[in-house]
Amino acid sequence: MMDRRGYEQIEIPDELDEIVQGAIAEGLLRRREHRAVSVLKRAGPVAAVLLLCLVSLLNLSPAFASVACELPVVGGLCRVFLFREYHTQDDIKYVDAQIPQIGDTGRAELEARVNLEIQKAVSACLEESEARAKDYYDAFVSTGGDPAGFTPLGITVDYEIHYISPRYVSFTVRQCETAFSVYNHYYYYDLDLETGRALTLRDWFGNDYRQIVADSMERTIAGWSEEQRSLLWDDLSIIDLISEDTDFYLDQDGQVVVVIGRYEAACGAAGRLEFTIDAPDGSAPR
């Protein structure tokens, strides 16, 4: 579970530009003029329709969003997802990494904090994964395995764009290992560009967020098969799973999808559980 207040409390070092640009983007972050909004104001209803179509494409197709961010005008709307891609390999591991950044939000401090948090999270995950790969290799060899027959540990870092609008941005950075799925990590970023803060469930649903989310999850579970429900822990309390730090993202329709980590609510076979929250009318912003 990710502490959504973490990067709001991070002390930004004086050498931040060097750290972020050198370690993640190597100078790839390009500032773009905020032309989309001004064009919309001048063009009127026709531009509004075009903008709606564009936002729909950005949310329906992450691949389109990644490519579109390289276009000058669209980049101003997209605001995020410039990334560095690299691949490395040796005898014990191979790494495929695609690392995002956010930009063009109009909030330099927000960008700095989120980009630094992404860098720190990815760096920590890679360091841990590489240490596990070495331990795995050493154990394999020490128990009589032929080094030439060792299968390198695969480590993947990538991201998924969930939702983009003029106000909200939601995306996930994830790190996965081929041999040890229990060590996979998911970092959810749900940003309010108007306030410059990370969103919480309380922000979205109000003070009754725990009850609203729990009620929706229980309705979903009630529709599951008996086999699905049998995977849940017997003493499970749904509402106790919900806090301001509970992981979630906004889907392509702008609805909250709560994510419950593996083993938090059910046995490992259930994996991560996702619940689209059916909120009462008027309880959630758009």
Question: Could you please describe the fold and organization of this structure?
Answer:
Mean pLDDT is 78; it is low at 15-44, 46-51 and 67-76. It is built from nine helices and nine strands. The protein is flat, with a radius of gyration of 21 Å. Helix 1 crosses helix 6 and helix 2 packs across helix 3. The strands form two sheets. Strands 1-2-3-4-5-6 form a six-stranded mixed beta sheet, sandwiched between helices. It has two domains: 16-30 and 79-198, Heat Shock Protein 90, CATH 3.30.565.40; 201-276, Heat-shock cognate protein, ATPase (Actin, Chain A, domain 4, Alpha-Beta Complex). The chain has 286 residues and is of the alpha+beta class. The chain has helices at 16-25, 35-43, 45-60, 62-68, 72-78, 108-142, 201-205, 209-222, 226-229; strands spanning 80-89, 93-102, 153-164, 168-177, 185-192, 197-198, 248-250, 256-260, 273-276.
> What overall geometry do the principal axes of the alpha carbons give?
flat
Average pLDDT works out at: 78
Low-confidence stretches: 15-44, 46-51, 67-76
Q: N-to-C SSE series?
A: HHHHHEEHEEEEHHHEEE
Please name the fourth-level CATH homologous superfamily of the largest domain: Fervidobacterium nodosum Rt17-B1 like
Order of adjacent strands in the largest pleated sheet: 1-2-3-4-5-6
Q: Please give the domain count.
A: 2
- Taking the alpha carbons of the first and last residues, their distance comes to 25 Å
- The tally of helices reads 9
CATH class of the largest domain: Alpha Beta
How many DSSP-defined strands?
9
Taking Cα atoms only, what radius of gyration do you get, to the nearest Å? 21 Å
Provide the helix percentage.
25-40%
Bin the strand percentage. 15-25%
Largest sheet: 6 strands, mixed
The CATH architecture of the largest domain can be named as: 2-Layer Sandwich
Structural class: alpha+beta
The name of the CATH topology of the largest domain is: Heat Shock Protein 90
